[in-house]
Specification:
The longest helix is centred in the last third of the chain and has 22 residues, at 648-669. The chain is α/β, with parallel strands linked by helices. Helix 5 (168-181) runs parallel beside helix 6 and helix 16 (594-611) crosses helix 18 (648-669). It binds adenosine-5'-diphosphate (ADP) and zinc ion (2 copies). Residues 136-139, 142, 162, 164-170, 324-325, 495, 535 line the site of adenosine-5'-diphosphate. Adenosine-5'-diphosphate is lined by residues 136-139, 142, 162, 164-170, 324-325, 495, 535.
């Protein structure tokens, strides 16, 4: 029979035999080479693909959990085919670690295996039963949306397009309650681990009275192996009815799954960036189709892919045009910074507006998508700049606190750390200055401007410790913070009650990025962060500082005009044949030298053109291999080759033919390569 193993060879399925019949989806222990491994039985063909003499016996059949269900196997199979990865590399990593580790089952410490050990442990004390603050009555738009979602008893993908603060959560909740009442399970995905506590509270408060104490399970990468196993078991046995989780939760078996919700569906975090590079949003739609159940994708700024589907009536669009609480959308102001003297990046207009809001006891959010103190340290006399010795990138100056021992230079690409030099390594001058600014520097400057204000910074640096993000967000929610400085971590989904003003610094940095999705991402990010303002009280305001106020992105933002922006962008994409009007795959090569990486890609391209010319006639086109923008990271040089087609099936067929050639070619040329389907960043 065929057993899927986490081995990067062929299709990831290997032949084994067993004297007793073993069901599909059962985990087994086998010997592969000299190693023992856990695999999943995925086929029962009698004829092995290798010499029957060589087929080894399955060593142990694991029966501590039910066989992985057929629909789970189908989804894994689909993902492996679609994303061009061996099946075992899709299946095994998606299981909680203890279920795929031989050491958890064999040897002294195993004590009956991880599932048995878990059942012996006392379950954690039940969480307090939260009472809902007040359940709002749905407005007409909301109930219209819910009606359509609950009336659907087959597959349909809904695109819930609701402006920020329009109450999408209530629509999710009411729809979920309906399916729960019908005995179904609901999968509720959020893009960011930091958003789970907020939703967990809401879900718990609203669902426990209907579903009981055990109703909710939560899955994200911040859990320990044991916690993850516990939650996974509760969901896959059907005990927990609602699964709240980040992208990895899409791979959880759910026997009674009846509804899938994907909040902030446009968010790039749904795309896994290593290993199996899947889109959890796209897999959600596939899974919904496969199980014949509805899928709800929600966003204030849907991805252009989803919007395009809705325009073509492949998805059903549900619109929430008004904010749910009796407040209007925040007023947006563009401050033209071209002729202004800025103080540490702040315009006088923004500083004045901040002062007023603070006087009125409102919160202010300052958004800058760049962490650290300054993006580079530079010598005033010779022009030396701090550079990473391992990458083609600057090192970023980090300071926390004023003491010099807390200062260092850090590379954001490879993690390289260095002390801050006392004098210029090139000319010896002692006048080294930070250039530009990041969130740490803003925090410092705001402390000088507004000494009475309580300031918090939320970015990847301030939240490195486990639980610290949650603590900081809790402080903001509790009103213990007056000014919040943050990166995109603060932009998403949070419902801050007292936030009156949002200031956006240096948004222009994203305006001229090479990636064709840069304007789309910038617009979504600005709409999101702007949407944090004035959610509970009227008079919210957003100030965006820019050198290019006439750019379409800013003009659309000014009018909260997602539809106009989407129309304009889709026209542009269509005229040049970019996604969603074309489908892409990206081959990336990593080598000692850029020359090697490029020549591998040239070679891969000519293999395609010589051996698979039929596909070239069917509209598969190649770009030229190019170096990545940051060519070298940790001494490895990188280049990429973009492949495109107007037909998804043709591209898929071509990739399936081409992909098996790439591994051997890469080995031969001593290059590492990865193939990514539907890349988000190019
Ligand atoms: P979104 O996710 O669309 O940005 P939320 O779901 O966070 O918006 O809702 C914004 C605010 O409006 C929340 O504080 C929520 O409690 C409130 N709200 C939602 N629906 C209603 C309603 N029908 N009536 C009054 N308030 C509502
Ligand atoms: Zn110098
Ligand atoms: Zn580096």
């Amino acid at each position: 029979m065929g057993v899927a193993l986490d081995v990067p060879l062929g299709d990831g399925v290997f032949d084994y035999k067993s004297s007793d019949p073993v069901e599909l989806g059962v985990r087994v222990i086998v010997t592969f080479g000299r190693r023992k491994m856990i695999g999943v039985v995925v086929s029962r063909q009698d004829k092995p693909r290798i010499d029957p003499e060589q087929v080894r016996e399955i060593e142990e059949v694991l029966s501590d959990i039910a066989p992985l269900p057929a629909d789970w196997l189908r989804m894994a199979q689909f993902a492996a085919g679609y994303y061009q990865r061996p099946l075992g590399e899709v299946m095994l990593p998606s299981l909680p670690a203890p279920l795929r580790k031989v050491s958890a089952y064999q040897g002294k410490a195993s004590r009956g295996g991880p599932v048995a050990r878990m059942r012996k442990q006392r379950s954690p004390a039940p969480l307090p039963d939260l009472t809902p603050d007040q359940i709002p009555t749905l407005n007409t738009e909301q109930s219209g949306a819910v009606d359509q979602i609950v009336a659907c008893n087959s597959h349909q993908t809904f695109l819930l397009h609701g402006v920020t603060g329009s109450g999408k959560t209530e629509v999710y909740l009411h729809s979920a309650l309906h399916y729960l009442a019908g005995g179904k399970q609901v999968l509720f995905m959020v893009p960011e681990i930091n958003l789970t506590p907020q939703f967990e509270q809401v879900l718990r408060a609203r669902l426990v009275h209907q579903g009981g104490e055990d109703v909710l399970a939560v899955l994200h990468s911040g859990l320990s192996d044991g916690q993850r196993l516990r939650e996974w078991l509760r969901v896959s046995t059907g005990q927990a009815r609602v699964l709240l989780g980040t992208r990895l939760s899409i791979f959880t078996p759910m026997p009674h799954l009846g509804l899938i919700i994907v909040d902030e569906e446009h968010d790039a975090s749904y795309k896994q960036q290593d290993g199996l590079r899947y889109s959890a949003r796209d897999l959600a739609v596939w899974r919904g189709h496969d199980r014949n159940i509805p899928v709800v994708l929600g966003s204030a700024t849907p991805s252009l892919e989803s919007w395009h589907h809705a325009q073509k009536q492949r998805y059903t669009c549900l619109s929430l045009r008004q904010r749910a609480r009796d407040v209007t959308l925040p007023h947006i102001r563009l401050v033209d910074t071209r002729r202004l003297e800025l103080q540490q990046g702040f315009s006088p207009q923004l500083l004045e507006a901040m002062g007023k809001r603070l006087d009125a006891k409102e919160q202010v959010l300052v958004f800058l998508n760049r962490r650290g103190y300054a993006p580079v340290l530079s010598c005033t006399s010779c022009g030396w700049v701090s550079q990473c010795p391992r990458c083609t990138a600057y090192t970023i100056l980090h300071r926390s606190g004023s003491a010099a021992r807390h200062h260092h230079l850090q590379c954001h690409h490879c993690g390289y750390h260095a002390r801050v030099p006392e004098k210029c390594p090139d000319c010896g001058d002692a006048d080294l200055r930070p250039m530009g600014r990041g969130t740490q520097r803003l925090e410092e400057y705001l402390g000088e401007c507004f000494p009475a204000a309580r300031i918090a910074r939320i970015d990847a640096d301030s939240t490195r410790l486990k639980g610290s993000a949650q603590k900081l967000f809790a402080k903001v929610h509790a009103g213990e913070i007056d000014i919040l400085v943050g990166t995109q971590m603060v932009a998403k989904g949070h419902d801050f009650a007292r936030l009156g003003l949002v200031g956006v610094l240096n948004a222009d940095a994203m305006l001229f990025a090479q990636d064709f999705r840069a304007p789309e991402r910038l617009f979504a990010q600005l709409m999101q962060v702007a949407g944090r303002a004035g959610r509970h009280v009227a008079g919210g305001e957003v100030i965006v500082q820019t050198d290019y106020p006439e750019q379409p992105v800013y003009q659309a933002l000014l009018h909260h005009d997602y539809t106009g922006f989407a129309r304009h962008s889709l026209q542009e994409r269509e005229s040049v044949g970019l996604p969603p009007f074309a489908f892409q795959a990206l081959l990336t090569a990593e080598a000692k030298t850029i020359a090697k990486a490029l020549s591998f890609l040239e070679e891969a391209k000519s293999v395609a053109q010589n051996q698979f010319s039929a596909y070239m006639d069917m509209a598969v086109t190649f770009y030229d291999p190019v170096p990545l923008r940051v060519v070298r990271v940790a001494h490895v040089e990188r280049a990429q080759l973009l492949v495109e087609s107007t037909s998804r099936p043709v591209l898929q067929a071509f990739l399936s033919a081409w992909n098996p050639q790439l591994g051997p070619l890469a080995n031969q040329l001593r290059v590492r390569c990865t193939l990514e389907v539907d890349p988000l960043e190019i």
